[in-house]
Amino acid sequence: MDIMTIAGILGGFVLIIIAIILDTTAGISFQFVRLKSFVDIPSLFIVLGGVIATILASYPMNKLKQVPKHMKILISGNRYEPMQYINTLVEFSKIARKNGLLALEEKANEQTDPFFKQSIMLIVDATDSEKVKTMLENDLEKLAERHDDGVGIYEKASAMAPAYGMIGTLVGLINMLQNMDPENGSSTIGKDMSTALVTTLYGCILANLLFNSIANKLRIRSDEEYLCKQIIIEGVLSIQSGETPKFMEEKLISFLAQAERDNVLGENKD
Questions:
Q1: Which of 154, 181, 206, 260 is 20 to 30 A from residue 16's alpha carbon, by CA?
Q2: Which one, of 151, 165, 147, 162, lies nearest residue 213 by Cα?
Q3: What is the pLDDT of residues 57-103, one digit of tens each?
């Protein structure tokens, strides 16, 4: 389980609250009464309500239904380890060279990754290598599009939150100006200005601390899955073409970042 996203978001909110209540004028003390100035329900309605309304208007329900799945991905950790796929593909390559491609059918049925299973079954069924490559790359392209749609929800929310914060600022300023009396001033100027400024604050916090964090983590998880599926495609095509397991392993390791390559090569030497 990966709790870093939740820990980072909660930690950010805690630090902001500490900064609000911390008083260093005479030593260090906490003035919890200050929090009252930063709690404004109308501001929250404008920002959070506006963002939710925009997302609902921008995306069809079949895409919005994926939001719970996105939350699960955030805390489930990395499910795609490139070296696990590389080691499995090397093992399959050895089996195929010794017993033929048909010997991989049973191994394919043991795989929990549908994409991996489909890839192995395509070469077991003696599908033409160009057709195998085209089919799998099409699947990978569609995967990337689906992931981009998911990340786009939170990137859209991140872009809209400051905009609704500005709307709240304008609402507060309009109310302040309408209630101003040139002769006697206004008794609601403080409340109206508070709504104006707090709404902007809410928009910035939600955009940068919440929505951007979710979008970035989902993008990282998407890249991890994409890399492993690239390795699968290259691996099954190498098995089908009869490449030696050693050469295939070295080729697949080249997909990894340099630090990961050095770590793998160091372990192999040991």
A1: 154
A2: 151
A3: 999 999 999 999 999 988 887 788 999 999 999 999 999 999 888 88
DSSP the chain: ---HHHHHHHHHHHHHHHHHHEE-TTSSEE-GGGGGGG--HHHHIIIIIHHHHHHHHHS-HHHHTTHHHHHHHHHH-----HHHHHHHHHHHHHHHHHH-GGGHHHHHHT-S-HHHHHHHHHHHTT--HHHHHHHHHHHHHHHHHHHHHHHHHHHHHHHHHHHHHHHHHHHHHHHHHHH--TTT--TTHHHHHHHHHHHHHHHHHIIIIIIHHHHHHHHHHHHHHHHHHHHHHHHHHHHHHT--HHHHHHHHHTTS-HHHHHHHHHHHH-
Between 91 and 25, where is the model more confident? 91
In sequence order, the 6+-apart residues with CB closer than 8 A to the CB of 266 are none
Residue 32 contacts residue 24 (beta carbons within 8 Å): no
Please name the residues in contact with 24: beta carbons below 8 A apart, sequence gap of 6 or more. none
Q: Give the other-Cβ count within 10 Å of 238's Cβ.
A: 20
231's CB contacts (< 8 A; 6+ apart) are 82, 85, 86, 89, 252, 255
Specify whether the CB–CB gap between 239 and 93 falls below 8 A.
Answer: yes
Q: What is the mean pLDDT of residues 175-200?
A: 73
Q: Residue 213: what pLDDT? A: 93
The pLDDT assigned to 135 comes to 93
| 199-218 pLDDT tens trace | 999 999 999 999 999 999 99
Token pair of 139, please?
Answer: 């699947």
Residue 153: name the closest of 264, 28, 66 by CA.
66
